[in-house]
Specification:
The protein is α/β, with parallel strands linked by helices and 330 residues long. It has twelve helices and 14 strands. The termini are far apart. It binds nicotinamide-adenine-dinucleotide and (2S)-2-hydroxybutanedioic acid. Pfam families: Ldh_1_C, Ldh_1_N.
């Protein structure tokens, strides 16, 4: 018997990430090749015509799994009964900006959308915030939505998967190993240059990749800055922020959350439960495994002095961002 369709909301549907994302969701790459979807597309009033154009193209693909779609500029409609919500719609940064420079402008979007999710979404909705600065925007959406008492804080996540995938590619190139053989990477903290891509536990076919590379200077002077500043390097090269790789990471994040990571570690920005000394509630990149629609933080990892310094550094930035939006949430 055919499965019941899953309602998927995508905000910023007329944007560049939206254009890389929607066709892959509709073709079954996110929720499975046997899972029909209904797309609920939210964008601003002035973008509705462009959203209609994207919907025409979606129709023209004749995707067997696309069971329906709507376009709206009303969050109450877009989030009604939604089971998976991808919060992409927000202003991207330009050259010379940091992601946190977007906070004042973008934060309000996430109070409005958080409130709509809190009132109208399916109570088990899985929310991924992509719009930057994504950790703090997820924090805002979580804080606003959970006031309505229907959706739990743990349902709000932020996208660190792009950083995870970027780090995997750099490690594969440096070690000469296949990217698919690399296991047990984590990117701790904020989706910002302060993030800490921690490769101490990475293995490839049983070999420790840090030992294979055996070059701590490369770690500090090349690997960490390359991963941390990759978003800016793409803006510099393309004149626009990453889009297809961001959409790909969003698909990876939700697919693993819904369908399971088969015991492998993946990085998700999630509300801390206090693990590893990260204050409860902060949205922080953690290593998790996923099964049955739930994520679980990988426990028991040794945190050496270098790692603790890096984890505290990225935490401090998140605490500053949180303080910056305290008024908005009061
Ligand atoms: P874009 O400018 O191409 O598209 C943004 C879309 O969002 C536009 O269609 C705009 O009309 C819409 N929008 C703006 N405010 C909205 C609102 N209140 N409700 C609904 N829609 C709204 O931008 P993009 O390149 O698609 O990037 C979107 C966001 O994703 C940016 O904030 C960018 O920095 C972020 N991003 C995050 C990551 C990550 O790894 N977390 C990666 C890449 C980009
Ligand atoms: C990225 O990492 O590519 C995105 O967050 C876009 C940006 O502003 O860097």
């Amino acid at each position: 018997m055919a499965k019941a369709p899953v309602r998927v909301t995508v905000t910023g549907a007329a944007g560049q990430i939206g254009y890389s994302l929607l066709f892959r969701i509709a073709s079954g790459e996110m929720l499975g090749k046997d899972q029909p979807v209904i797309l609920q597309l939210l964008d601003l009033p002035q973008a509705q015509k462009a959203v209609k154009g994207v919907m025409m193209e979606l129709e023209d693909c004749a995707f067997p799994l696309l069971a329906g779609m709507i376009a709206t500029d009303d969050p109450a409609v877009a989030f009604k009964d939604t089971q998976v919500a991808l919060l992409v719609g927000a202003r991207p940064r330009g050259p010379g900006m940091e992601r946190k420079d977007l906070l004042t402008e973008n934060a309000k979007i996430f109070t409005v959308q958080g409130a709509a999710i809190g009132q109208y979404a399916d109570p088990n909705v899985k929310v991924l915030v992509v719009g930057n600065p994504c950790n703090t925007n997820a924090y805002i959406a979580k804080a606003t939505a959970t006031k309505f008492g229907r959706v739990k804080p743990g349902n709000f996540t932020a996208m660190l998967r792009l950083d995870h995938n970027r780090a995997l590619s750099q490690l594969a190139a440096k070690s000469g190993r296949d990217v698919s053989s690399l296991k047990s990477l984590v990117v701790w903290g904020n989706h910002s240059p302060t993030m800490y891509a921690d490769y101490r536990y990475v293995t490839s076919n049983g070999d420790n990749v840090k030992a294979l590379i055996n070059d701590e200077t490369w770690n500090r002077d090349t690997f960490l800055p390359t991963v941390g500043k990759r978003g800016a390097a793409i803006i510099e090269a393309r004149g626009l922020s990453s889009a297809a790789s961001a959409a790909n990471a969003a698909i990876d994040h939700i697919r693993d959350w819904v369908l399971g990571s088969n015991g492998e570690w993946v990085t998700m920005g999630i509300p801390s439960d206090g693990s590893y000394g990260i204050p409860e509630g902060i949205i922080y990149g953690f290593p998790v495994t996923t099964a049955n629609g739930e994520y679980k933080i990988v426990q028991g990892l040794e945190i050496d002095e270098f790692s603790r310094d890096r984890m505290n550094f990225t935490l401090k930035e998140l605490e500053e961002e949180r303080a910056g939006v305290a008024d908005l949430l009061a």
